[in-house]
Amino acid sequence: MRRLLARLRRLYADYRALRWALWALGAVASVGGTIVGALAANAWRRMGPVLTDSPEYASDAKASPPLASIHWSLPHVDLGPFVPLLIALAVVLAVRVLLRWPMARPDNPWERDPRRLFTDADRRWIKELTGNRCEHRWMFGLFRCRRRGAYMDGHGQMDHHYPHTKGGATVRTNLVWLCDRHNNRKSDKVPTRLETWMLYRARLKYLPARWRAYARIDATTDETEEDDDDGQERHEPQARGTARGRTIRRRDGGGVGRRPVPARDRAPERPPQEP
């Protein structure tokens, strides 16, 4: 049933997009036809003096009255009123393109990230960075969802900004914190470049300075990371320091290495146990 409803929603979205496209094409065709007709009438009107009979070339042949007077019967069309309409149409088409321009597919070494879910540490991290408030933006990024605090504690959801099913990496640079309503509305749709840019500009204002590198959405990973036998979860290699003793495979096949473990992240040494 859910799949059927999802398909119906997608079909309705496609229908709306097709309707808008047909409306825009019809508007362009009607305005273009009017302009072409007006230009043709104006050109024919200017040809009037040329078509007038000259005495030196007079003959007994008579021109057809309708053809001889056609340049007098065509009205003059002023193109001035159409200029604002054309500008408004161009603005509408530009906004439509911005609202429909999707992000490019990230260049990752796999079709889907082997690790799909974020960790509890990621949840605590994103809640702290966002002030436990939904990151959804609307009205061209001017306003932000007002759900926060206790509501987000029970209904807040982590999600990939670029969908995991479409090739987005499970990294913190691709993590967003949304309320259940806006996350369900987002679903697995590929975000537009305008939405991504609005989120980036908004994050520059509320992210702490030391986490400002995470403001820009990046669904790619430069390295293929594999977990060690100790089952440690992996994180992205770009933004935050070092991983915890994790095996790294470079995408260009240039060898395998192990990142150093910072002193603050090392586990305390246990005293030897007596036999």
From TrEMBL:
Residues 221-275 are annotated as: Disordered. Residues 262-275 have a biased composition (Basic and acidic residues). This is HNH endonuclease. The keyword Membrane applies. GO terms for molecular function: endonuclease activity. Residues 221-231 have a biased composition (Acidic residues). It comes from Bifidobacterium adolescentis. It comes from the Bacteria. Keywords: Endonuclease, Hydrolase, Membrane, Nuclease, Transmembrane, Transmembrane helix. The chain crosses the membrane at residues 20-44, 82-99.
